[in-house]
Amino acid sequence: MRRLFPVTDQTAGKDASDVDDVMGVGHPEDREWSLGELADAYAYPDGPWLRANMVSSLDGAAQHDGHSQPISSTTDMRIFGTLRGLADVVIVGAETVRAERYRPARAREVFARRRAAAGQATAPAIAVVSASLDLDYSAPLFTEPPVPTLVLTGAAAPPERIRAAEKAGARVLVAGDGPGVEPERALRALADQGLTRQLTEGGPRLLGQLVAAGVLDELCLTVSPMLTAGGAQRIAGGPAVAVPARFALASLLEEDGFLFTRYVRS
Predict the structure, then answer these.
(1) Interatomic CA distance for residues 221 and 117, integer angstroms
(2) What is the number of structural domains in the chain?
(3) CA angle 165, 116, 203 (to 5 degrees)
(4) What is the pLDDT of residue 26?
């Protein structure tokens, strides 16, 4: 892996193999150390912070054949795991939960000391955003979580489905006066639970709502060196914002043609 931006005293003037040695990435025997390096590179700032993690093909597709895995890579999944290892909560839309067959985030020994020092649970909670609460409560996401799964919904959600979610062990947080979820209220409700290191993995509809609400602080976008054509969704869907939101490049890593970008709100 190469760090392309920002250029540091360690990486300036070095070739790719030298940078690999500096970062400790790309060598199987250094795998645990390289995860620590990635964790340092993606550390959360102080205060409530919402970052998104998405992948896109060169022609803008967020998925292929309904799934993101075909345009991903081993390193992309390693960063995916690192971002989860740092987060208090992973926020995801119900459609993505169903399409990707979401499972609970697992506790990982490599992050145990870091999480304990930060006062975090052993694994991040999964928070599902759903207006209808049409979810499979017999799925592992609800039957096998190391920490209780959260469900974010609106006040007008069907009462019988709220009861079904709670019976399944989920914690239901109301974050909207109508049937839907209001992004700012959802993030505030999670922060009130002590879940301030927030990560969303989409899907595109949810990310579009967060962008439109102006609450996204950071985007971690993997640019996959693949072309898919077709009619796949972009990483963010829904109505366009009135004025495009400007983000600034914070870091750029590269491996095997994949670009791992990190942008923060200007």
Answers:
(1) 28
(2) 1
(3) 45
(4) 41
Task: Determine, yes or no, domain membership for 53.
Answer: yes
User: What CATH number corresponds to the domain at position 207?
Assistant: 3.40.430.10
User: Given this model, what pLDDT does residue 179 score?
Assistant: 83
Instruction: Give a yes or no: residue 73 inside a domain.
Output: yes
Residue-level pLDDT at 19 = 42
3-state helix, strand, coil in the chain (%, to 5): 35, 25, 45
Cα separation, 238 vs 93, in Å, equals 14
Q: E strands of the chain, at which residues?
A: 2-5, 49-57, 89-93, 125-129, 150-153, 171-174, 197-200, 218-224, 247-255, 258-265
Does residue 80 sit within a domain? yes
User: Cα separation of 142 and 130, whole Å?
Assistant: 14
User: Which long-range contacts link 133-136 to residues 24+ away (Cβ below 8 Å)?
Assistant: 133/157, 133/158, 133/161, 133/162, 133/164, 133/165, 134/94, 134/161, 135/94, 135/97, 135/98, 135/165, 136/98
Closest Cα partner for 145 from 129, 120, 122? 122
| Sites in the chain below the pLDDT cut of 70 | 9-34
Domain span including residue 176: 45-265
3-state secondary structure of 127: strand
What is the rounded distance in angstroms from the CA atom of residue 120 to the CA atom of residue 108? 13
Amino acid at 56: S
Give tens-digit pLDDT for 181-236.
999 999 999 999 999 999 999 899 999 999 999 999 999 999 999 999 999 999 99
The pLDDT of residue 12: 54
Q: CA-based angle 126:130:134, to the nearest 5?
A: 105
